[in-house]
Design brief:
408 residues, alpha+beta, six-stranded mixed β-sheet, 13 helices, 22 strands
């Protein structure tokens, strides 16, 4: 029996498995898929990920894949105002890389570290002993199996069997957005900046995978997805027309394969631990991909979960609530920052105002992008001086429904 069973082989699961294996524990990992497998994602990764990849011993494997460097972000507001922010020059840049490649590389690093990896095995139910998670019931090509462990780490994504059987994960009550992704070749105007284009009620990200290839993903409300009517490619091409600057650059490009959709995106976890189990990655909840921190957050939550699980295993404890506290402490300010940005994006007039301000103040643009890139503390976004510089404090008179309501 392994000490730890990780359910899910994406970045969060592979990272948690490697961290715990480095701490000397016997670890098994299962995933219903067989890798490499596709994953709908914006595929831009913030610079902070390199620190975590170095800790995992996976940085060289990722560099060997030739990821496209991202040295900052460029945002286009609804009226067409453009501003750019750069990551700190003394840091490694972020990068863009297909999840098809990244996830397989991290899973192979887990195997190399001594993790027992079993693909094509789906968790179906939890094994409970006196109210404590003690394993899972899984099924694969060889039939049903009972897999026991002292700690179970749920890294099985937004449809997490573990989190949902524990009653911890549910869809967000208000945000019901879907993402639709397409890969394009021969795209014009790509460089070493990721892009975000905002329109009323929607936004579209462009992640350059090279100087000619890009991931182009937009996010729209679920009500709009009904227009797809089973013809997703037609819907994808039609919806892209909201961003004429993108469409112009795609006029000579080729859509490489059919687009894919995922959603609703926003999930809430009431807790991220239960006796004998912790949730990492999307299984621990997901808000919105606008700031593109999903992979880095997955790696960071895996790092924290592994530290707490290691301490609990050493002490013979099943109480893992320390992870709730530590994860909340590590993510609280960034999540507030994400909420603030979503409020701004939802108001076209405010988006335009902020974009015009940032276009005139590159120092503010760099700081905002640094927060999104996870190396400038997010708490710095909530000081009155910074908000006044952005111009958002002018809307205080709009009351609690204003974008600043999130700060109250």
């Amino acid at each position: 029996m392994p000490e730890v069973l990780v359910v899910g082989g994406g970045p969060a699961g592979a990272a948690a498995a490697i961290f715990l294996r480095h701490s000397g524990h016997e670890v098994a990992l299962i995933d219903e898929a067989r890798f490499p497998r596709d994953k709908v994602c914006g595929e831009g990764v913030s610079p902070e990920a390199w620190r975590l990849l170095d800790r995992l011993g996976a940085a060289d494997a990722v560099r060997a894949l030739g990821p496209h460097p991202l040295r900052g972000m460029r945002l286009t507001s609804p009226e067409g105002t453009v501003f750019s922010g750069d990551y700190a020059r003394d840091r490694a840049p972020g990068f863009a890389l297909r999840r098809f490649c990244l996830d397989r590389a991290l899973l192979e690093c887990a195997r190399a570290a001594g993790v027992e990896v079993r693909e094509g095995l789906r968790a179906q139910e939890l094994v409970l002993r006196d109210g404590v998670v003690a394993g899972v019931l899984a099924a694969g090509g060889a039939g049903a199996e009972r897999l026991a462990a002292r700690v179970v780490i749920a890294a099985d994504g937004r449809r997490s069997v573990v989190a949902r059987r524990l009653g911890l994960l549910r869809e967000h009550g208000r945000l019901r957005r879907f993402a639709v992704r397409g890969y394009w070749t021969d795209v014009e105007g790509l460089d070493d900046h990721g892009e975000m284009h905002v329109a009323r009620g929607a936004y579209c990200g462009v992640a350059p995978l090279s100087l000619r290839e890009a991931n182009v993903t937009f996010v729209v409300d679920r009500r709009e997805m009904g227009a797809a009517g089973g013809r997703l490619e037609d819907f994808y091409r039609r919806t892209l027309a909201r961003w004429p600057r993108i469409v112009e650059r795609l006029s000579r490009a080729t859509l490489a394969g059919p687009p894919r959709a995922i959603g609703p995106l926003a999930l809430r976890a009431s807790r991220v631990s239960a006796p004998g189990a912790v949730l990492v990655g999307d299984a621990a909840g997901f808000y919105d991909p606008f700031t593109g921190e999903g992979v880095t957050l997955a790696l960071r939550s895996a790092e924290l979960a592994a530290e707490v699980a290691h301490g609990a295993l050493a002490a013979g404890r099943t109480d893992l609530r320390e992870y709730d506290r530590r994860r909340a402490e590590a993510t609280r300010d960034k999540f507030r920052f994400n909420h603030l940005l979503q409020r701004v994006v939802a108001w076209p007039a405010l988006s335009d105002l902020v974009a015009r301000r940032l276009a005139r103040r590159p120092d503010l643009a760099d700081r905002l992008v640094g927060i999104a890139g996870d190396f400038v503390p997010a708490r710095t976004a909530f000081g009155p001086a910074f908000l006044l510089d952005l111009g958002t404090l002018r809307l205080k008179r709009l009351g609690s429904e204003s974008p600043l309501g999130v700060l109250r």
